Amino acid sequence: MPKISKIQLDQTVNADDKLLGSDASGATRNYTIKQLADFVVESGGSHKHHQNSDSDTWTIDHGLELDGYLPSVTVRLDDGTHVDVGAFGQVKYINKNQLKIFFAASYSGFAYINK
To answer: Which one of 1.20.1050, 2.40.10, 2.60.40, 1.10.238 gives the CATH number of domain 46-114?
Structure first.
């Protein structure tokens, strides 16, 4: 194998940059940064929930199979406001794959669930 003596340093990383790796069968593959990031998000223990319509109760089926600990929950309302769920509402953990957020008023926005 040839020896690489000089590598030009890339000052920025973007979604289309590629990494060399191998898949489960051992075959060599090129993966983009975006493919790697999507894989980490999908299998790494986070879920993004979009509450389309205003509601005072958000039911979130996250499918994270949480057993023995509670996930962190962050909420961003549609107006861009990030809220402290503990001060702004209440989270009830229904089971290892579902939780509900209760608010005093109706809101729409996003909830981010992390292991």
So the answer is: 2.40.10
